[in-house]
Specification:
This protein has about 130 residues and is mostly helical. It has helices at about 10-15, 20-25, 50-60, 105-110, 115-130, and strands at about 80-85, 100. It has five helices and two strands; from the N terminus they run αααββαα. It has a two-stranded antiparallel sheet with strand order 1-2. The longest helix has 13 residues, at about 115-130.
């Protein structure tokens, strides 16, 4: 972009700081099928809503503390069940966008997530105990 591969560290920082998304899409318009719907002014910041803890718990209670992917029930180990945003937009709390997942299944959706071995072992043990493995 704008010769960045030829620039030194300070020049690329200056380029980054002066970046304009409109100019970028004008320059590289042939690379994209369509422009993004949002602009820097209209895009929502991908943060959890203030009531996320309440919404997340309601979803997990609604699923009776069961993982919607593998079926393990974590009623006895509630902290091992999380609520996942299917479209990865943390502010989109529509019920059809939320999914209750055990730590293992959630990590499969997000490869960057790490799960302690003890947590994995406990979930696997629960799956076996419940006849799921």
């Amino acid at each position: 972009y704008n010769g960045a591969e030829e620039m030194n560290h300070w020049q690329t920082r200056e380029l980054r700081d002066s970046f304009d998304i409109g100019d970028f899409f004008e320059e590289y318009s042939t690379y994209f099928k369509e422009k993004p719907k949002d602009t820097c002014e209209t895009i929502k910041i991908n943060n959890y809503t203030d009531d996320w803890d309440v919404i997340s718990k309601k979803k997990r209670v609604r699923e009776d503390w069961g993982c919607e992917n593998c079926g393990v029930n974590l009623q006895r180990f509630k902290s091992y069940l999380q609520t996942h945003h299917q479209n990865e937009k943390k502010y989109d709390n529509r019920l059809d966008n939320l999914e209750a997942l055990c730590l293992i299944c959630h990590a499969e959706k997000h490869p960057h997530m790490t799960i302690p071995n003890e947590s994995k072992k406990l979930i696997i043990k629960e799956r076996k105990r419940q006849g799921l493995a």
